[in-house]
Write a structure and sequence with these properties.
The chain is mainly alpha-helical. Helix content is 38%, strand content 6%. It has one domain.
Length: 172
């Protein structure tokens, strides 16, 4: 799905995932969008390290918005976010349960890649794995929104896999 009909008429990963998750699309269109999201995960154009960007890298503009106040590769203009992952996993689950489980595992691994001094895991607001740029290591929406979405969709059990398979030693 696209984000706009004029300026910014580009593929919108977050909006597409949300539309499928909440049932805003016809069954036929929802299946097509879900399959596109699976491709975005498998081909690494929309998801990396268990997080999603707003515009896929397959976009003719290279994964950045046509016009943005944020520099390319930063924030909502090329950063990767955990916030929409509940929508994304839920949307993918509609057509490919194995891919949804793979994304869920990757998301949890990504959350646990860094343990803070107090033992909490780092939940970044956004980051760019290519540049190392990031913001806000305790961004609650990175954990809370995906958790609530997966619970609402009745698929929270996707995260029910052996802890040792996903979490680094000492984190549980």
């Amino acid at each position: 799905m696209h984000s706009a009909s004029g300026m910014g008429n580009q593929a919108d990963v977050w909006g597409s995932a949300y539309a499928v998750h909440c049932g805003a699309l016809s069954e036929r269109v929802g299946v097509l969008v879900s399959r596109a999201l699976v491709r975005g995960f498998r081909e690494r154009t929309a998801v990396r390290d268990g997080t999603a960007r707003h515009v896929p890298t397959s976009d003719p503009r290279g994964g950045v918005w046509e016009r943005s106040v944020s520099a390319a590769g930063t924030y909502q203009n090329g950063g990767y976010w955990g916030t929409p992952m509940g929508w994304y996993i839920s949307a993918v689950h509609k057509t490919d349960r194995a891919a949804a489980a793979d994304i869920a595992r990757e998301y949890v691994r990504g959350l646990c890649r860094k343990v803070l001094a107090d033992g909490a895991v780092e939940a970044l607001e956004w980051f760019n794995p290519d540049t190392g740029a990031s913001a806000n290591p305790r961004y609650v929406a990175t954990v809370a929104l995906p958790y609530l979405c997966l619970q609402e969709a009745g698929i929270l059990n996707l995260l029910d896999f052996p802890v040792g398979e996903v979490l680094p030693r000492g984190v549980a």
